Amino acid sequence: MIRQSRPLARSVSFDVTDGHGVIEVTGGERGSLLLLAGDPEFLEANDGCGSMGWLAARAGTGGPGLSDVKYLIEWLGAPGLVPDPRTGQAEPPDPESLRPLLSLLSPGRYVMTAALAPHHLRVVHPRALQVRSWYADEELALVTTDAWPPRDHRAVRRYRDRIRAGGDLPALVALFPTAGSRVGYLLDGHHKLAAYEQAEVRPLVIRLVPQVPRPFRPDDLDRAQAAFSDGPSRHQGDTLGGVFPSMREESA
Length: 252
What we know:
By secondary structure, the protein is α+β, with helices and mostly antiparallel strands. The protein is built from seven helices and 14 strands. The strands form two sheets. Strands 1, 2, 7, 8, 9, 11, 12, 13 and 14 form a nine-stranded mixed β-sheet that branches. Strands 3-4-5-6-10 form a five-stranded antiparallel β-sheet, covered by helices on one side. A hairpin with a 6-residue loop joins strand 5 and strand 6. Helix 3 (153-165) packs across helix 4 (190-199). The longest helix is centred in the middle third of the chain and has 13 residues, at 153-165. The protein starts with a strand and ends with a helix.
């Protein structure tokens, strides 16, 4: 059951009381873990090397992929959200419209906003047991959780043509560990994002954030360190080795 209240304009808070816990994000603005079916699957973090260096990693292929546990929501193809031409913000949708996806989250209270992405948007695609590094010289980065670029080129073209024609914009859904986080996980909308890139139009992003950030749990970090470091590259192990100590300092 989803119970909602509206504390501020342009945002909506809602409670997921019967969530299945398939999708959970822990951590904060310096780094986070995305857990799927309880297993650490994706990681993003400040690499601690200065100049706002950032990294993202994905565990091995043995874990569940997000495409296996999520619902595709046709409604997101044309949600009827209208961004303000001055601010880029849109009135967020009724949480019930997203219920099939929200029911996969861990129970708790979340805040939802909707807005056009900044002009400088980075798309990060971490491959299994590899580390992607970048400098945060943009306002927003999205970590992909499905095939990238998307394999269904016809779907991308359909979205691209509709975006170029104007009218009802399709929406992406991304999960962030905190309201101030600049890096989020793209839960749904990979084809739409590719279409936006081809159309050279800023994407409309629905942001989901736990109202109270969830700190790292020590046992999750233990399993994550084993999962993400189980690769042939010594360089990857060294890179991640510098990240996990700081994560442990922030653990519950």
